[in-house]
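Contributing new complexes? Match this layout with 6-O-phosphono-beta-D-fructofuranose.
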Amino acid sequence: MTLRDVESYSAMKLIQGQPQDETGMQDCSLIEEILQNRSLIIASNRGPISFQKDEQGQMESKRGGGGLVTALTGLANLTEAHWIACANTDEDRQWQRGPVSLDGSSNTVDVQFLAPQAAAYEGYYNGIANSLLWFLQHSMLDISRNPTIDRKTWQDWKDGYVAVNNLFAQRIAEQVRASRRPSLVMLQDYHLYLVPRLLRSLLPPRMDYTLMHFVHIPWPGSEDWGMLPPKMRLAILDGLLAADLVGFQTREDGLNFLRTCESFLPRAYVKFKYGRVWYRNHMTHVRDFPISIDVDSLRELADSAEVGAHRHSLLEEHTAQQLIVRVDRIDPSKNIVRGFRAFGELLEMHPEHLEKVQFLALLVPSRLNVELYQQYLAELMAAAGEVNVKYGNSEWEPIRILTGENYPRAVAALELYNVLVVNSLADGMNLVAKEGPLVNRREGVLILSERTGAFQQLEAGALMVPPLDIYATAEAMHQGLTMPEAERKEKAALLRSLVEGEDIVDWLCLQLEAIAHLGL
Ligand code: F6P
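Output block (do not edit by hand):
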């Protein structure tokens, strides 16, 4: 395969800067056309909303954060929409299904919760998706030690991952059959790789529906997939190749997928030039659709009194002349430990920053049922402690960690950084790298790992770091902290315009346009 072969393999042209219409969606010429004759079925592990009881026992709902919910809610305003997800709370389980307004308008989405047995969910979510696939797809296999695939892993596979994927497929099939119009099924992420094939087996071959699957995380090369037992690997590839369109964050991810199909499926006919695979009498198209953020609603939040109050208290508590900030889930792929070590290197190599700079890390606990995540939390605390003991004093704590899920506080911190660190080992996209430059008020500098999907779009305005290199990361921190104002302004303005140019709605438009252009 030559580079020329892959030239035509890319996402469709972006539609940018278009006015919004009454649905709240930017004008994307094909959205209405595609959706007017279809009903929409979205399926994801987490739902767009979750229910729980407050202290008084009153039922309250919490809308899922992020642009994905906003963007897909916008689509729901155009057609009948169903969202199928796993229940997260007892209240979700009791709710089962029903119409929910996700944007406060009279338009509703039919939210349906699946309630797998606790053991099945544990095997599917913690056992396979987060302990195995997540590590494999972020190139974090530590093959001399982890993972070991044992009897428990196979049980998690069979009674967890396969079983929960089956539950999804059955419910989606019911919904496709019940819909008055042909369905557009939009499957999300690595939790649901088996659903497309299972769904095909449940529905009659001639039934009219379109099946797309978007993979939010990296798709590594076939060498990594070679570490997975053939039975699992084949089920995943066979599963995805039952979809009509498989979307990835970057062109490299899509190419890696095509290479993986070529390496492991001798009966697949892979056409790199056109980004498609012919397999079991079916054509699957492969495209990249880089995801983004909801620019308008983030700006609105950044201007809110709530974020203002957090900004105020952060400024009172953190009086160092300059702030280095990071905002991450506590996840080994985020490379937080090396980020702290790099800060230690910075203080060692450039002592002029002592007592003048503070590293503020806002970290969200995540997947703590997985042992490697617990270990990572302990490791990063120890790494920060080491730097603080070595360089800190009673007046100055070099690294300050704030834990907990508090999005308005995170946005306030992003407004205040002089340097933002995103040094992930691998990242499907990394939305912090897009949120930061949009809301930052200090013409701050973005340090960005070359192994994030966001790097493809933001490279020109960021300081690139190879994630393993803490020496280079320390030097990038120094460069960011000492960058002349004119250069900082120029880079910050460039980043802002790059982020504004590709909104979350563009991500959706690209997918729907691809569906229209491919005649799916
Ligand atoms: O990046 C993949 C992803 O599933 C995101 O969609 C999500 O924000 C993140 O990981 C958190 O995952 P979880 O639902 O396991 O907390």
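Reviewers usually confirm one structural detail per submission. For this one: The first strand starts at residue 39 and ends at 43.
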